[in-house]
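Example 3.2
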Amino acid sequence: MSPAPKDAQKPYVAYQGVAGAYSEAAAAKACPNFETIPCDQFETAFQSVENRIADLAILPIENSLGGSIHRNYDLLLRHNLHIIGEVLLPVHHCLMALPGVRLESVRRVISHPQALAQCEQTLTKLGLNAACEAFDDTAGAAEQISLYNLQDTAAIASARAAKIYNLEILANGIQDDSRNFTRFVVLSRDPVDPRADRPFKTSVVFALENGTSSLFKALSAFEARKINLSKIESRPHKNFPIRLVETVKRFEYVFFAEFEASMAEVRTQEAMAELKEYSSFFRVLGCYPMDIASESASNEG
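Structure, written as tokens:
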């Protein structure tokens, strides 16, 4: 599936998946006045913004149980888009099948690998004698059952997906942990103006001139200015994957860091200037408002 041509009068937001996907729900929450464009791949969503088919894209970046979506970290580095917002979405999984199918007759469960992992214990407790198979996305798994009339197969997806594809919910809320949230980022061709009058978050990516041995010194730029570093993620440095130090070969990394401060603040500008001193590569991915309401909800859950 590729992005369809859009009405020039309407703003559009691209997401990966089909109707009923959690990404579609995140798009509706983050961009309530936008039309949505489903894309078959994460990269297609990036490209749809770059090619002006969509105005924005929304992509999952991490899950509270499953961890980071590494593919999208790599795509953030490959494409020149800006993070302009974030949204945290509670994930509520359901087990669904064709109408009339009984739980004990299910021989296969299909869904996204993370959804399967997030429901593993509950599926065991349900006593299913079924093999789990990975699918591209949760709603796509539900669509597959409906499209091909799969009588022995159930999907893990959202309640909205069950409604869209005329499936019956066999079990509701089957995630192993109710504190299951996915964090999405909103991407645009242009950055937003950083402000200091409300909580902002900044995302950067950098590679270190002297490799990982200087990481502690680089991170001291945040500590010295009391900037809360909320996340750091390392990925292989694909342009320079190996560093030879004397006779030892060492892997090289780029680091994705997020911190709770705005680029409009003097302390952030000073920290970034110091970080650049240690870096062979540095880029600001975005400075954007924090999703305070959703974070509060997450803490309550």
